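yo

u said u wanted the structure for the complex thing, so here. seqs first:
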Amino acid sequence: MEDRRNVILLVEDNPDDEALTLRALKKNNIANTVVVARDGTEAIDYLSKHSELLQLVLLDLKLPKVDGLEVLRHIRAQNQTRLLPVVILTSSKEDRDLVASYSLGANSYVRKPVDFNQFAEAVRQLGLYWLVLNEKPPLPKV
Amino acid sequence: MWVYDLETLRFLAVNDAAVSHYGYSRDEFFSMTIRDIRPSEDLPALGESIARNTKPFSRSGAWRHRKKDGTIIYAEISSHSLVFDGKAAKLVLAYDVTSTVRAKEALRESEEKHRVIAETASDAIFMIDKNSTIQFVNKSAERIFGHKTEEMLGKSMTMIIPERLRQRHNSSLQKFVTLGEKHINWSGVELPGLHKSGREIPVEISFGQIAEDGTRFFVGIVRDITERKKAEEQLRALNEELEERVRKRTAELESALKELEAFSYSVSHDLRAPLRSIDGFSQALLEDYAGRIDDTGKNYLNRVRAASQRMAQLIDDLLNLSQVSRAQMENEVVNLSELAENIVRELEKSGFDRQVVFTIARGLAVRGDKRLLEIALENLLNNAWKFTGKQNNARVEFGSTEQNGARTYFVRDNGVGFDMAYVDKLFSPFQRLHAPAEFPGTGIGLATVQRIVRRHGGKIWAEGTVGGGATFYFTL
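structre next:
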């Protein structure tokens, strides 16, 4: 089965943050296709249809309709996406969010810096790590 | 024993017993009349009795006689008419019954005393025999139970006991009777009593046992505790109300705390996102439109970026401060020296090629919350490090002393110091004594330290001179 996993799912409700993230990815020459879901429902919907294309999920926590933790729970519950790398990308640094995210199986937790340069640098490092350096998990058995 | 002349009342003959008992000699007797052995107040009565006494034999008791030395005795008299030496006379036999009389008097006085005590008592006093028959009640019993004394005497005590408890009373009494102990005391028992009207009264009773003439009686003291019960009930209701209020207040506090947490949480999300946009798009402008913006424009955009980053820092500091106030305090032994050493190591790593001499006292340990104390020390040491930035021989010291009997810790530096005139402002949030250009910072650090110190029950204060460094003292 061909490994077509090279899409980044960006789950982000804030249009500004969406624009800035996309810009940062572009600046760092990360050419992967980025699909944007603007709330939890859209995210789950995409996951149910196209999970075989996904290499990485960048997940914000505060989302309308279904929030980020719910989406995470869903991802880890489905066999198709159980091992899919998920990076929480959010403003919050609250302990309870960290605990909840890691407990539910997030692979990484990055707090979005206000300073755009720092933000771009963070995106660069995330891209380098998760898209290049990190080994993809085995394909799920069909 | 003596004989006296009926007409003259003079002693005609006396025996030896009379002589020894009354203390007069024979000759003295013969010169006296029977009036002389009486106390003067009794003489009229004597006169009357002689006049009335025409029988040949009579017996009368307990006359008062006076001995020669003045002592009064009681004598029981029996007198016989006879003729002595040709004269009409009386032969008198006198029995000294003083001790009996005195005993009787003492008994009467004692009885009187007890009666007064019983009647004065505001509690009801009952005396019953082993069959529960009421032998005696006092006035208060009338008042408390509504029955007249006559209605109670001779009846069973069960008349003042509610019907359902009568059997229990009888069997308890039987137990006492058969136990045969000398002084059984049964005190302070609370039971309902029965008023004549049928109403029940809460009472407290004490029972004791007395033996009189070999028969056993029981004395019961019954106190009407209606008022006391009412007061107890009021107190209980009051306590319950207070506890209810405390419960409510605690719930209110808890919900206020939850609101505060929710607020902090939303601050951390909602306020930072727009800042990110401001900074991000300013940067985007600078990068993507560099050619089309002049230097002034670039300058403006940089200011915009700097301002938004500064605001982000402020928000973070505020969040930290509220975190410090909200967090549950752990209580364990914390090695302050170790914490300080760790912080210093981090500072030296971020070095910027600065040479700072840190002196840390060893073995400083205290009870408190490790996390909070770490934050406090971090702030203090960071400040010291920061404000010695312009010093060549920067020296920072962390140690402890005894001040006024309390262990006082301090962080001292030889940096830029401060003017003591502004010492009050030091700990206010966001108050700074230097421009951010000179020394970076938001002005929250010391407010945070103060809050942490206060939560540990301590105080913090500072001393400094302009250009001569600063020392921050705190207790925990």
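Chain B has a mean pLDDT of 84. The interface with chain A takes residues 264-265, 268-269, 272-277, 279-284, 305, 308-309, 311-312, 319 of chain B (CB under 8 Å).
cya
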